[in-house]
Design goal:
The complex is a heterodimer. Chain A contains no helices and 11 strands. Chain A is mostly beta strands. Chains A and B meet through strand 4, strand 5, strand 9 and strand 10 of A and strand 3, strand 4 and strand 8 of B.
Protein backbone atom coordinates (compact mmCIF):
# COMPACT_ATOMS: atom_id res chain seq x y z
CA UNK A 1 0.00 0.00 0.00
CA UNK A 2 0.91 3.63 -0.22
CA UNK A 3 1.36 4.10 3.49
CA UNK A 4 1.33 2.33 6.82
CA UNK A 5 -2.09 0.87 7.43
CA UNK A 6 -3.47 0.08 10.85
CA UNK A 7 -6.67 -1.70 11.77
CA UNK A 8 -9.04 -1.27 13.32
CA UNK A 9 -9.04 2.54 13.47
CA UNK A 10 -11.15 2.45 16.61
CA UNK A 11 -11.60 -0.32 19.13
CA UNK A 12 -13.81 -0.30 22.19
CA UNK A 13 -13.42 -3.29 24.45
CA UNK A 14 -14.51 -4.33 27.87
CA UNK A 15 -12.02 -4.58 30.66
CA UNK A 16 -10.52 -8.05 30.85
CA UNK A 17 -10.89 -8.82 27.14
CA UNK A 18 -7.94 -9.45 24.83
CA UNK A 19 -7.38 -7.21 21.82
CA UNK A 20 -5.20 -7.57 18.73
CA UNK A 21 -4.09 -4.53 16.79
CA UNK A 22 -2.79 -4.94 13.28
CA UNK A 23 -0.14 -3.03 11.38
CA UNK A 24 0.55 -3.39 7.68
CA UNK A 25 3.82 -1.56 6.94
CA UNK A 26 4.92 0.00 3.69
CA UNK A 27 5.92 -2.76 1.31
CA UNK A 28 9.60 -3.56 1.52
CA UNK A 29 10.22 -1.76 4.78
CA UNK A 30 12.57 -3.68 7.00
CA UNK A 31 11.87 -2.03 10.35
CA UNK A 32 8.55 -1.81 12.14
CA UNK A 33 7.84 0.08 15.35
CA UNK A 34 4.98 0.19 17.82
CA UNK A 35 4.23 3.26 19.91
CA UNK A 36 1.53 4.25 22.37
CA UNK A 37 0.35 7.81 22.76
CA UNK A 38 -1.77 9.22 25.53
CA UNK A 39 -3.68 12.43 24.98
CA UNK A 40 -1.38 15.45 25.17
CA UNK A 41 1.76 13.35 25.38
CA UNK A 42 4.43 12.38 22.90
CA UNK A 43 4.51 8.86 21.46
CA UNK A 44 5.92 6.30 23.87
CA UNK A 45 8.11 3.56 22.39
CA UNK A 46 6.89 0.00 22.90
CA UNK A 47 8.85 -2.32 20.64
CA UNK A 48 10.45 -2.71 17.24
CA UNK A 49 11.32 -5.35 14.68
CA UNK A 50 13.87 -5.76 11.94
CA UNK A 51 12.34 -8.24 9.53
CA UNK A 52 10.72 -10.83 11.79
CA UNK A 53 13.16 -10.40 14.67
CA UNK A 54 12.03 -8.40 17.66
CA UNK A 55 15.07 -6.23 18.33
CA UNK A 56 13.86 -4.29 21.33
CA UNK A 57 10.84 -4.81 23.54
CA UNK A 58 12.01 -2.69 26.42
CA UNK A 59 9.02 -0.37 26.13
CA UNK A 60 6.33 -2.99 26.60
CA UNK A 61 4.80 -2.02 29.96
CA UNK A 62 4.18 -5.54 31.29
CA UNK A 63 3.71 -9.13 30.20
CA UNK A 64 0.13 -8.51 29.08
CA UNK A 65 1.61 -6.80 26.03
CA UNK A 66 3.20 -8.78 23.23
CA UNK A 67 3.97 -8.27 19.57
CA UNK A 68 4.89 -10.43 16.66
CA UNK A 69 5.86 -10.10 13.03
CA UNK A 70 6.14 -13.71 11.92
CA UNK A 71 6.84 -13.20 8.22
CA UNK A 72 8.65 -9.91 8.43
CA UNK A 73 5.74 -7.89 7.11
CA UNK A 74 2.43 -7.52 8.97
CA UNK A 75 2.68 -7.15 12.72
CA UNK A 76 0.19 -7.69 15.51
CA UNK A 77 0.27 -6.06 18.92
CA UNK A 78 -1.73 -8.06 21.43
CA UNK A 79 -2.93 -6.84 24.78
CA UNK A 80 -4.30 -9.50 27.10
CA UNK A 81 -6.75 -8.87 29.93
CA UNK A 82 -7.12 -5.23 29.01
CA UNK A 83 -7.34 -2.60 31.72
CA UNK A 84 -8.69 0.94 31.57
CA UNK A 85 -5.18 2.36 31.78
CA UNK A 86 -4.42 0.67 28.42
CA UNK A 87 -6.72 3.18 26.70
CA UNK A 88 -4.61 5.20 24.27
CA UNK A 89 -3.75 5.70 20.62
CA UNK A 90 -1.52 2.89 19.40
CA UNK A 91 0.66 3.86 16.47
CA UNK A 92 2.72 1.77 14.14
CA UNK A 93 5.58 3.02 11.99
CA UNK A 94 7.86 1.48 9.43
CA UNK A 95 11.14 2.45 7.84
CA UNK A 96 13.13 1.14 4.94
CA UNK A 97 16.01 0.52 7.27
CA UNK A 98 16.28 1.08 10.98
CA UNK A 99 19.86 0.22 11.40
CA UNK A 100 23.21 1.28 10.11
CA UNK A 101 24.49 4.65 9.11
CA UNK A 102 21.96 5.04 6.34
CA UNK A 103 19.02 5.41 8.65
CA UNK A 104 15.90 6.53 6.89
CA UNK A 105 12.82 8.17 8.25
CA UNK A 106 9.98 6.32 9.90
CA UNK A 107 6.50 6.63 8.39
CA UNK A 108 3.64 6.48 10.84
CA UNK A 109 0.18 5.10 10.38
CA UNK A 110 -3.03 6.79 11.48
CA UNK A 111 -3.17 4.71 14.61
CA UNK A 112 -5.73 2.61 16.45
CA UNK A 113 -7.69 4.39 19.16
CA UNK A 114 -8.23 1.84 21.93
CA UNK A 115 -10.82 2.50 24.59
CA UNK A 116 -11.20 0.06 27.46
CA UNK A 117 -14.48 0.43 29.33
CA UNK B 1 19.35 7.43 25.79
CA UNK B 2 20.65 10.88 25.11
CA UNK B 3 18.01 13.31 26.33
CA UNK B 4 16.75 16.39 24.57
CA UNK B 5 15.39 19.60 26.03
CA UNK B 6 12.98 21.81 24.12
CA UNK B 7 10.89 24.83 25.11
CA UNK B 8 7.29 23.75 25.72
CA UNK B 9 5.80 26.31 23.35
CA UNK B 10 6.64 29.00 20.82
CA UNK B 11 4.74 31.45 18.66
CA UNK B 12 5.55 32.64 15.18
CA UNK B 13 3.92 35.06 12.77
CA UNK B 14 2.84 33.68 9.43
CA UNK B 15 5.48 34.27 6.75
CA UNK B 16 8.29 34.68 9.24
CA UNK B 17 10.99 32.16 10.03
CA UNK B 18 10.35 29.80 12.92
CA UNK B 19 13.50 28.83 14.81
CA UNK B 20 13.00 25.89 17.16
CA UNK B 21 15.88 25.15 19.54
CA UNK B 22 16.87 21.83 21.04
CA UNK B 23 19.54 20.97 23.58
CA UNK B 24 21.14 17.52 23.50
CA UNK B 25 24.26 17.98 25.58
CA UNK B 26 24.76 14.25 26.23
CA UNK B 27 24.65 13.24 22.57
CA UNK B 28 27.26 10.65 21.62
CA UNK B 29 29.29 10.36 18.49
CA UNK B 30 27.11 7.71 16.89
CA UNK B 31 23.81 9.51 17.36
CA UNK B 32 21.92 11.54 14.81
CA UNK B 33 19.58 14.43 15.52
CA UNK B 34 16.10 13.89 14.09
CA UNK B 35 13.14 16.22 13.91
CA UNK B 36 9.55 15.12 13.59
CA UNK B 37 6.30 17.01 13.88
CA UNK B 38 2.78 16.01 14.74
CA UNK B 39 -0.17 17.96 13.47
CA UNK B 40 -3.29 17.66 15.58
CA UNK B 41 -4.21 13.97 15.84
CA UNK B 42 -2.19 12.74 12.88
CA UNK B 43 0.82 10.45 13.15
CA UNK B 44 4.25 12.02 13.53
CA UNK B 45 5.82 13.22 10.29
CA UNK B 46 9.53 13.16 9.54
CA UNK B 47 11.10 16.54 8.81
CA UNK B 48 14.86 16.24 8.67
CA UNK B 49 17.87 14.66 10.33
CA UNK B 50 21.60 15.28 10.58
CA UNK B 51 24.81 14.12 12.21
CA UNK B 52 27.15 17.09 12.36
CA UNK B 53 26.74 19.10 9.20
CA UNK B 54 23.92 21.50 8.56
CA UNK B 55 21.16 20.02 6.46
CA UNK B 56 18.44 21.49 4.28
CA UNK B 57 15.50 19.97 2.48
CA UNK B 58 12.24 21.20 1.03
CA UNK B 59 10.64 21.43 4.45
CA UNK B 60 13.27 22.91 6.71
CA UNK B 61 16.89 23.53 7.62
CA UNK B 62 18.76 21.96 10.50
CA UNK B 63 21.64 23.79 12.12
CA UNK B 64 23.82 21.72 14.46
CA UNK B 65 26.42 23.43 16.61
CA UNK B 66 30.03 22.44 16.19
CA UNK B 67 30.11 20.67 19.55
CA UNK B 68 26.81 18.93 18.61
CA UNK B 69 25.28 19.78 21.97
CA UNK B 70 22.42 21.74 20.47
CA UNK B 71 20.58 22.27 17.23
CA UNK B 72 17.97 24.54 15.68
CA UNK B 73 15.22 23.61 13.27
CA UNK B 74 14.36 26.45 10.93
CA UNK B 75 11.11 26.73 9.03
CA UNK B 76 12.01 29.59 6.68
CA UNK B 77 8.51 30.89 5.93
CA UNK B 78 6.05 29.51 8.45
CA UNK B 79 2.44 29.02 7.40
CA UNK B 80 -0.67 28.35 9.45
CA UNK B 81 -0.39 24.68 8.46
CA UNK B 82 2.96 24.47 10.27
CA UNK B 83 1.16 24.73 13.61
CA UNK B 84 2.10 21.46 15.28
CA UNK B 85 4.12 19.80 18.02
CA UNK B 86 7.78 19.57 16.99
CA UNK B 87 9.93 16.80 18.42
CA UNK B 88 13.71 16.79 18.57
CA UNK B 89 15.10 13.25 18.94
CA UNK B 90 18.54 11.73 19.12
CA UNK B 91 18.87 8.30 17.60
CA UNK B 92 21.81 5.96 17.37
CA UNK B 93 22.80 4.26 14.16
CA UNK B 94 25.14 1.64 15.55
CA UNK B 95 25.08 0.35 19.07
CA UNK B 96 24.23 2.32 22.18
CA UNK B 97 20.98 2.48 24.06
CA UNK B 98 19.23 4.67 21.49
CA UNK B 99 20.04 2.28 18.63
CA UNK B 100 17.19 1.98 16.18
CA UNK B 101 14.26 3.41 18.07
CA UNK B 102 12.97 6.96 18.17
CA UNK B 103 12.36 8.23 21.70
CA UNK B 104 9.94 11.16 21.74
CA UNK B 105 9.91 13.75 24.50
CA UNK B 106 7.29 16.41 25.11
CA UNK B 107 8.26 18.52 22.11
CA UNK B 108 7.58 22.17 21.36
CA UNK B 109 4.09 23.33 20.51
CA UNK B 110 4.56 25.79 17.68
CA UNK B 111 1.64 28.10 17.00
CA UNK B 112 1.76 30.08 13.78
CA UNK B 113 -0.62 33.03 13.86
CA UNK B 114 -1.84 35.33 11.10
Amino acid sequence: GAGVSQSPRYKVTKRGQDVALRCDPISGHVSLYWYRQALGQGPEFLTYFNYEAQQDKSGLPNDRFSAERPEGSISTLTIQRTEQRDSAMYRCASSLSGVGEGNTEAFFGQGTRLTVV
Amino acid sequence: DAKTTQPPSMDCAEGRAANLPCNHSTISGNEYVYWYRQIHSQGPQYIIHGLKNNETNEMASLIITEDRKSSTLILPHATLRDTAVYYCIVRGFAGGTSYGKLTFGQGTILTVHP
